[in-house]
Automatic annotation (TrEMBL):
Residues 1-18 have a biased composition (Basic and acidic residues). This is DUF445 domain-containing protein. The keyword Membrane applies. Keywords: Membrane, Transmembrane, Transmembrane helix. Residues 23-33 have a biased composition (Polar residues). It holds the Pfam family DUF445. PANTHER family: INNER MEMBRANE PROTEIN (PTHR38442:SF1), INNER MEMBRANE PROTEIN-RELATED (PTHR38442). The chain crosses the membrane at residues 46-63, 75-101. GO terms for cellular component: plasma membrane. Residues 1-41 are annotated as: Disordered. It comes from Streptomyces calvus.
Length: 448
């Protein structure tokens, strides 16, 4: 149930982000910036110019035809033919340019108003074009290999100022991440991970192997030396306490002087035993301790009852509040230490990171093998992204275009490219006039 709520929340967030992106795209395509308004004014001026040129050749055609009927010379025919072809070219190009954005004269002519009616199909085609020609594996690898990211990045990192900048950015990111993380969450995760890992793995065999190796190497002898030395020193300082303890455990019917003699004898024998054990590396008690530890190490690895007892003891220890508090305090101390080191520009952490970046940059800039590895990693990562998420990347284009309002999209596209399209009308008028003049001239020449 909880996972379902989280999934629903994630879906709502994704829908909200998509709606926000769509709203931003719609605002971008339904509003005109001052630059867009200036472009629209330029388009209107060019439209007037192109239309004026059409009217000019129309007037020239009418006047030359009138002059021809009035008995003007052969020149009138040449000029009329040029003007007539110019009108045809101007009208044809006007139709073609207008058909991109709207229906000429409002007539429902097929294959007109292409942009508003085919906007979504154009978006799909654009997305497919980008996916096939820009997001293919071969193209990505070729472009990245030509860039030489490894050598460029190495040369950039080898500059001390750049290494300082990267170190500062990494430190800021680390501080930010540790600040965002709540101590209680991290402590819970770490505690659960440690507990789960400890529960999943039996520790007795590992402890047995470690103890076996320690005893075989004589590593336990220093611990024994420390214990017996401290025991000797304690007995010397607290002899009265030992004798009182022995006397206090004696039967009530024994005379007190006997209890005192027994206590003194026990104390002397105990002190003698500890002293001999301290001063004699070959003392029998030391040998017995070695055999005990060896047998215990073997039991930890092979004895079922011993291993079960260790597992129960492990569970009891991990379940104690003191252990969980120790984990919590350890994380708090580690976090505080890392944050302090990240904030201090002269801390060992930042100095080591800076030195590592400089060393890495120098190697990347000079070693072709390292450059090849870095280039391979970058190419592999980029190829993985474009091949795995190609559909999502191209859908960003198609979905964005589909979310645009057709009318405002048409106006905005026309504002940006309409001025150049009006030059097509002008060129059509001029080229048509020249073509008409040429055709009329050849016809007259061949007819003659």
């Amino acid at each position: 149930m909880e996972r379902t709520k989280v999934a629903e929340t994630g879906d709502r967030d994704a829908e909200g982000q998509h709606a926000h992106t769509g709203a931003f795209s719609n605002r971008a395509m339904t509003t005109f910036s001052p630059a867009d308004e200036e472009k629209r004014r330029g388009v209107r001026r060019m439209k007037l110019t192109a239309t004026g040129l059409l009217l000019f050749v129309a007037v020239v055609y009418v006047l030359t035809k009138w002059a021809s009927h009035q008995g003007a010379g052969p020149w009138a025919g040449y000029v009329a033919a040029a003007a007539e072809a110019g009108m045809v070219g101007a009208l044809a190009d006007w139709f073609a340019v207008t058909a991109l954005f709207r229906r000429p004269l409002g007539l429902p002519i097929p294959h007109t108003a292409i942009i508003p009616t085919k906007k979504d199909q154009l978006g799909v085609s654009l997305g497919e074009f980008v996916g096939e020609n820009f997001l293919s594996e071969d193209v990505v690898r070729l472009r990245l290999r030509a860039v030489g990211i490894g050598s460029r990045l190495g040369a950039w990192l080898a500059v001390p100022e750049h290494a300082d900048r990267v170190t500062a950015e990494l430190s800021a990111a680390l501080r930010g991440a540790l600040t965002v993380l709540r101590d209680s969450d991290v402590q819970a995760v770490v505690g659960e991970a440690i507990t789960r890992r400890a529960d999943a793995q039996e520790i007795a065999p590992g402890m047995g192997k470690m103890l076996e190796k320690i005893v075989a190497d004589g590593g336990h002898k220093r611990a024994v030396d420390l214990i017996v030395t401290r025991a000797h020193d304690w007995l010397v300082l607290h002899g009265d306490s030992v004798m009182d303890a022995v006397q206090g455990g004696a039967p009530g019917w024994t005379p007190r002087f006997v209890d005192r003699k027994v206590g003194e004898r026990v104390y002397r024998e105990l002190l003698r035993f500890v002293t001999e054990m301290r001063d004699m590396p070959a003392h029998p008690a030391r040998g017995a301790l070695d055999r005990f530890l060896t047998d215990f190490a073997s039991d930890l690895q092979s004895d079922t009852d011993t291993r079960a007892r260790i597992e129960r003891l492990k569970g009891d220890i991990l379940g104690r509040d003191e252990v969980q508090d120790l984990i919590a305090s350890a994380w708090t101390a580690v976090r505080s230490m890392i944050v302090s080191a990240a904030e201090d520009e002269r801390s060992e952490l930042r100095l080591r990171v800076r030195a590592s970046l400089l060393s890495l940059g120098a190697r990347m800039a000079a070693d072709p093998k390292v450059q090849g590895k870095v280039d391979g990693w970058v190419e592999g990562a980029a190829v993985y992204v474009v091949t795995t998420y190609r559909k999502e990347i191209t859908s960003l284009i198609t979905d964005t275009v589909a979310s645009w309002d057709a009318e405002h999209t048409t106006k905005k596209i026309e504002a940006n490219i309409g001025r150049d399209l009006q030059f097509i009308r002008i060129n059509g008028t001029v080229v048509g006039s020249l073509a008409g003049l040429l055709i009329y001239t050849l016809s007259r020449a061949l007819g003659a």
